[in-house]
Amino acid sequence: xxxxxxxxxxxxxxxxxxxxxxxxxxxxxxxxxxxxxxxxxxxxxxxxxxxxxxxxxxxxxxxxxxxxxxxxxxxxxxxxxxxxxxxxxxxxxxxxxxxxxxxxxxxxxxxxxxxxxxxxxxxxxxxxxxxxxxxxxxxxxxxxxxxxxxxxxxxxxxxxxxxxxxxxxxxxxxxxxxxxxxxxxxxxxxxxxxxxxxxxxxxxxxxxxxxxxxxxxxxxxxxxxxxxxxxxxxxxxxxxxxxxxxxxxxxxxxxxxxxxxxxxxxxxxxxxxxxxxxxxxxxxxxxxxxxxxxxxxxxxxxxxxxxxxxxxxxxxxxxxxxxxxxxxxxxxxxxxxxxxxxxxxxxxxxxxxxxxxxxxxxxxxxxxxxxxxxxxxxxxxxxxxxxxxxxxxxxxxxxxxxxxxxxxxxxxxxxxxxxxxxxxxxxxxxxxxxxxxxxxxxxxxxxxxxxxxxxxxxxxxxxxx
Amino acid sequence: xxxxxxxxxxxxxxxxxxxxxxxxxxxxxxxxxxxxxxxxxxxxxxxxxxxxxxxxxxxxxxxxxxxxxxxxxxxxxxxxxxxxxxxxxxxxxxxxxxxxxxxxxxxxxxxxxxxxxxxxxxxxxxxxxxxxxxxxxxxxxxxxxxxxxxxxxxxxxxxxxxxxxxxxxxxxxxxxxxxxxxxxxxxxxxxxxxxxxxxxxxxxxxxxxxxxxxxxxxxxxxxxxxxxxxxxxxxxxxxxxxxxxxxxxxxxxxxxxxxxxxxxxxxxxxxxxxxxxxxxxxxxxxxxxxxxxxxxxxxxxxxxxxxxxxxxxxxxxxxxxxxxxxxxxxxxxxxxxxxxxxxxxxxxxxxxxxxxxxxxxxxxxxxxxxxxxxxxxxxxxxxxxxxxxxxxxxxxxxxxxxxxxxxxxxxxxxxxxxxxxxxxxxxxxxxxxxxxxxxxxxxxxxxxxxxxxxxxxxxxxxxxx
Amino acid sequence: xxxxxxxxxxxxxxxxxxxxxxxxxxxxxxxxxxxxxxxxxxxxxxxxxxxxxxxxxxxxxxxxxxxxxxxxxxxxxxxxxxxxxxxxxxxxxxxxxxxxxxxxxxxxxxxxxxxxxxxxxxxxxxxxxxxxxxxxxxxxxxxxxxxxxxxxxxxxxxxxxxxxxxxxxxxxxxxxxxxxxxxxxxxxxxxxxxxxxxxxxxxxxxxxxxxxxxxxxxxxxxxxxxxxxxxxxxxxxxxxxxxxxxxxxxxxxxxxxxxxxxxxxxxxxxxxxxxxxxxxxxxxxxxxxxxxxxxxxxxxxxxxxxxxxxxxxxxxxxxxxxxxxxxxxxxxxxxxxxxxxxxxxxxxxxxxxxxxxxxxxxxxxxxxxxxxxxxxxxxxxxxxxxxxxxxxxxxxxxxxxxxxxxxxxxxxxxxxxxxxxxxxxxxxxxxxxxxxxxxxxxxxxxxxxxxxxxxxxxxxxxxxx
Lengths: 465, 465, 465
Prior knowledge:
Chain A is α+β, with helices and mostly antiparallel strands and 465 residues long.
């Protein structure tokens, strides 16, 4: 008995310990996350996958880190389908902004009295407003279709539902949610006919369903799925009357626009920067979103800059490279401090140590650049990035190096003296050393020889963080 | 003693069990809530009640279910008063959209330099901006006045306060909140006079107050209350210069507009659908609200449809009927999954089973139709519904059956083949079977006989869910 | 053993007690907070302080009380600097609205291709959009510079970061966050030069850094800090081309505007009320903010009024006085009730007891006036207040006493009879007793003698709450 009591005490302590250890470990875990700004391609959830394609949804930004609280109502989705396939009709309780990454598609958008089909390809972007019934065909004979979607849910922050018009075993048609009585009255027809013509045969007896499932597993029967094969003839019907993205303007209310149709906003031999802002396009206006595409040539650098108010969600589409983002150290401690602020009314001074967040980029990786945070991106092979910017209206991109558009060079001489260790003259001379703007050589010739002696070829700068 | 130790162990386990059972039961409880979209008339809190009328506030939407997170700043209030009564002057820290359900009233709205009185009756709608001092008289000799208010608080999400100019025992006048010094200086008068003329005699000694309370309980003295009786002469004064709702346009900045003044947007012999959208009325514009009124005739059906981006909060005003709403199964599990998403990076496929939510409607019942969710409503007796829609701008109503405005009929032939089990020809034939649009016979003649044989008269379709 | 078991039982109970007592005490604590609307000058956190000035941040409103949930994305900052000092260049991930409280400054705002300098002084207000690099000099020879900033973060609710272009030991320059490789490629220069000219010498060996720190502690070396001394010549360079606040209009897109340039909206011998609303100024429009300045003369009173939809955050700049604010009693209980509402479907009537919140004001105190809440402010010495109003569009100020603009006087005669204990005639006579509007004598002559007999001189009305 004397042993039992201590044992019970231990159990008591055990409860307390368990409770506190949960708290500790979760905080520990957060601190271990080396780079919250990077989402490697494994941070996705597969919503659908068959032999014709797949749909993958990136982890919620706000679940990754509290620093992305302002991204809680944004999701990023990647759609991938094989040649001659169709994503069947459906609508969502979310606004979608589609950007075609590669391939050639026909997108059909339905309205109650009409339908519009569009030929879309790499660089084409279009908004699908919430509730729009649409379907998407890969019209190419060889190339996969890759589409990136920024999703802005209308019902629940960060969550959305897809309503499929056609059913399968795992994905019921939403019409089958109505009762027999409602369906019969709505279609003025016998339920058997409605079931036979519109709904999947899913109401059959369990044995039948099991048989069906087995059969489908073997045959991968197409009608059981969300992405199905289509014949050349079927694509021809879709292509009829399909419009291409407006080449003249990017300001259409409902037609796709191509990121590359306008001149790049920044361009030289090291790279090109294309951007459509909400001011330029009415589709992006009410959502306050910008879309951009950036090409950085092999061995080049997108010079250090920051966005004044937009937060960018950038996907590496092709090529390899590296990004560096400058933030504040000890985010978590600062958070904690904020939470504890009431105890801190004495007011101790906050130290502000900057922190470098650095990571290699491969196709499929996503990174987030919060407003105000300086960033630079270098390419070890031709790098193609597509970005969505939220809070985009009146966003300004301030460069911190380069000949033009360099905000540092605007500082008064006397303030340069006070702000920097060098004299104003030294600062000006240094700022004028870079003759390029926006994009530059990531390994300037002048320094190349010396660097290579020290560090080997260009790829050696791309160390993992 | 050997018994005590296990007992203590049991107690220990008890704590753990208690803790976990709370979690389980709350989740269990949520799953038990058979239909979160329906608010029966018992889900209200009475804010005020006397012999002249009552004020009732519907439960917070977001407290009912997490799926209504986007409704957290909207409340629904029902006001009911007897003939020849007045709701005394007050203001609120919330915007109100009033819709008269029945009866005849005079609404007076004060501004610092003016006042405006309006004769309002069934179908009349007006916005009372936050902070507006207003009073409302039932000017009819016989009919009760029923008003429905959508409330959008400005200070705290989902919470609002009423500031009463006139006090009673339970509802102090807000002027009595100022100190004697401030009141004397403000009114340039002696405090006794201010108290005698403007404030209730509530500052008297406790014994006096007790007497007063007893006396009031016996006599139900009117001046002690928020809704009071008014004489015919007093109503005459209010009626003077009162304007009626603008018959010409629904676009006034501050005057009431009648839902029925414009032509119905959908109409046939089975029903009528009236709607004022933010695009049509400046009062609804900044709040992004729509208001509608739907009449469904006995034995008729509002055909299956969904709202592309608006969420509708609908009140059954008169008649009986039934609604069916299609959502996703296992909302709660999905929620849980969302929360656990970080552990799920392996990415398992989500199944999407549709769920039918079905309920009988009686006067006073409220139901919510989230954006994108298909819904159908049938009437077993003439049914009159009034709805407020949030997130209303650019909302589109997509019908899923009926001859006109049927989004399914716009699908390409080849896609119909792929999406539905029937051939495109079968699908088209089925879609053309319904000759009505928007509203139809809930028990089509063709099927009536057979159905009645199987199921009895029309009322039998209205089984509780 | 018979003692141990009860002991263990006590421990068990102890856990339960501990758990519940935490809840109780936190609630207790809230109820103890006598006046959540007042933030005395100790509720600040010092972000920076040296011999040249300091930067202080007010506690988060929403951490103080749940009633300020709608203020969660607003922060208030106070900047103070000595004559001939400069706040070095930096940008923030937040919009700032600056209001100069006293002193004379030169504000320089950088754009990628230009810079603008402004002479600003007391009453001048300007918006610094998020991400703007700016620096601020106190150009006066004698007077301290005091600036009040309303801060609206763009990344995280209620939290913002400053990015400093120039570094010191405790506040690193953000450029030092980039790697050697990125900096060398960006500036096309050797890292040693970049470090020497642009970055602080913080990468030196630990011993050197320790020496440096010691030296700085002794000498308070200026370049190590955020606010530094500037020479008269340096100020002259800044002053060159500096514009003054636009005297003609308050509607500039980017230039400062002075609160006092327009006629006061309310004015008499007892006080002046200046206000710039979002309708009047494009800089305030997208943030939906108003800025006002109120002078209340010694012994005067700003008459009881409420704001229809704006919530005001008011700082006492000079003088002493007192405010009275009328709210609802038992906020906390009401909150709790709201949370428990689901259990309350029986619907018990809510009692509405008004509560007076009263406090003395000294320079540096901040108070919040939520929308709809009546307030009055009296001055025991000339009082100067500066306020920021959120949710400001279409805000209306309704006065409850005074000759003009008095909303109570608009009530129908018959309703006055019903609403107040006095007759309509008595009410009208009382309302007409105050000949002043907006501002009045806090100690009217008529009552002065009597009051003084009872209560002593004017200061005696200013009792602490």
